[in-house]
């Protein structure tokens, strides 16, 4: 499954991208994709996984890692799988 999400809240300037990057690479090592700051103050997370549910990963990010910082996470549609060799910060 591959999916992108838009994260709203206090997610820029607080180490959010790096924390998501480390969390995904540690807990979900086969997941590919990226985390990226957007110009409007939100963050896009795109995930490509054949093993893990992308919704479960987003749930963990929202409720475990940055529960006090995230106001909302919305599905932003699919992206092309096979574009990334791992999970990275863009």
Cα Rg: 12 Å
Query: Major sheet, described briefly?
Result: 5 strands, mixed
Spatial gap, N to C terminus = 21 Å
Report low-confidence residues grouped into runs of 5 or more: none
Structure notes:
- This protein is α+β, with helices and mostly antiparallel strands.
- It has one domain (2-89): Alpha-Beta Plaits, CATH 3.30.70.100.
- 27% of the residues lie in helices and 32% in strands.
- A hairpin with a 5-residue loop joins strand 2 (32-37) and strand 3 (43-48).
- The model has no long low-confidence stretch (mean pLDDT 91).
Task: Give descriptors for this structure.
Alpha-Beta Plaits; 90 residues; 27% helix; five-stranded mixed sheet; globular; alpha+beta
Short description:
This protein has 90 residues and is α+β, with helices and mostly antiparallel strands.
Topology:
Blueprint: E1 2-9, H1 16-27, E2 32-37, E3 43-48, H2 54-65, E4 70-75, E5 87-89
Parallel strand pairs: 2-5
Antiparallel strand pairs: 1-3, 1-4, 2-3
């Amino acid at each position: 499954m591959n999916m992108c999400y838009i994260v709203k809240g206090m997610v820029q300037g607080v180490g959010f991208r790096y924390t998501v990057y480390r969390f995904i690479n540690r807990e979900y090592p086969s997941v590919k994709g990226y985390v990226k700051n957007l110009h409007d103050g939100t963050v896009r997370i795109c995930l490509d996984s054949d093993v893990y549910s992308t919704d479960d990963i987003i749930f963990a990010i929202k409720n475990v890692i940055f529960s006090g910082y995230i106001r909302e996470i919305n599905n932003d549609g699919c992206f092309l799988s096979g574009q990334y060799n791992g999970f990275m910060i863009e």
